[in-house]
Design goal:
By secondary structure, the chain is of the alpha+beta class. 26% of the residues lie in helices and 27% in strands.
Length: 299
């Protein structure tokens, strides 16, 4: 299990609709839409040295997801940012912190699927924890899941929603296979992403990542493509098969929670060497530099 409990989180305070509550008291109603049907959207955001990295990008995506889901009485971006900052300050969190930002459709007047039962507006939850990047330095082992990633005809992955059952089922497969995570394929059999992260390969000096057809076009993913462009590293978005991953020079994953993580094994096949690859090391170092000077100041 990659994530472990951090004792610094024993007495954290959680923001729920304007109140900062001790973690043991922080609760939502059983009538809240996130309980009734997983009807919510979310973002994962990281804090580095007094700054919130890619804050505006995450809040904008939250707003777009909520708009697509037709939420009513959505808090403004400023209200969300203020809530995040107040939560971090209340917890004295200025580094090595991760925020799970959740916006639900809100509380229903009675249980049921119909969004017209929601008359109280959205529920905003800011859960900030001390949390270092979760994956081990030596990298991770993946398996290919039998569960397919949703395409837009089923549930569009461009909505960063809380309906994560297919990802969780893929993660369960990985757990039983004694792997860290699982590669999820799209409905054509091409690599989409893992159950938790976007995925890249490097082959013969070229960086490739799957089209964001059946996966979330992650903010860390976008940042890596921007770094590659500025550094004149050949890069592309294209269909990638699992066998190409087996034979890549490097495979790595990207995400806010784990940053850049090399993959050393997929389905029992060893990947050549991510740790000693110059391109991977360059991308990782430049990403680290970005986190040190970019971001929105907490106070």
């Amino acid at each position: 299990m990659a994530q472990q409990y951090d004792n610094r989180n024993d007495n954290i305070k959680v923001w729920i609709n304007g109140e900062l509550l001790h973690r043991n008291e922080a609760k939502v109603s059983v009538f809240d839409s996130v309980v009734q049907g997983g009807d919510a959207v979310w973002e994962g955001i990281r804090v580095y040295k007094g700054k919130i990295f890619k804050l505006n990008e995450h809040v904008n995506r939250l707003m777009e997801s909520a708009h697509t889901m037709d939420f009513k009485n959505i808090p403004s971006p400023k209200e969300v940012v203020d809530a995040i900052k107040k939560t971090l300050i209340a917890n004295d969190m200025f580094d090595e912190a991760h925020i799970r930002l959740t916006l639900t459709r809100g509380e229903k007047i009675t249980s049921g699927m119909d969004p017209q039962l929601n008359t109280k507006g959205c529920t905003l939850i800011v859960l900030a924890e001390f949390k270092r990047p979760i994956y081990p330095n030596e990298g991770i082992k993946l398996i290919t899941a039998s569960i397919r990633r949703n395409g837009p005809s089923n549930l569009d992955s461009k909505i960063h929603h809380n309906n994560l059952i297919n990802n969780i089922l893929a993660k369960i497969e990985a757990n039983y296979a004694n792997a860290d995570d699982a590669i999820m394929l799209d409905d054509r059999g091409f690599v989409s992403e893992t159950n938790a992260t976007n995925i890249f390969i490097i082959k013969a000096g070229k960086l490739s990542t799957p089209h964001a057809t059946a996966c979330l076009p992650g903010i860390t993913r976008k940042t890596i493509l921007e770094i590659a462009k500025k550094a004149d590293i050949p890069h592309e978005e294209r269909d990638i098969s699992v066998s190409e991953c087996f034979n890549a020079d490097v495979v790595f994953t990207t995400g806010t929670m784990g940053e850049l993580t090399n993959v050393y094994e997929i389905d029992g096949r060893m990947i050549k060497s991510a740790q000693n690859n110059d391109i991977f090391k360059q991308l990782k170092e430049q990403y680290k530099q970005l986190t040190e000077y970019e971001g929105v100041t907490i106070q």
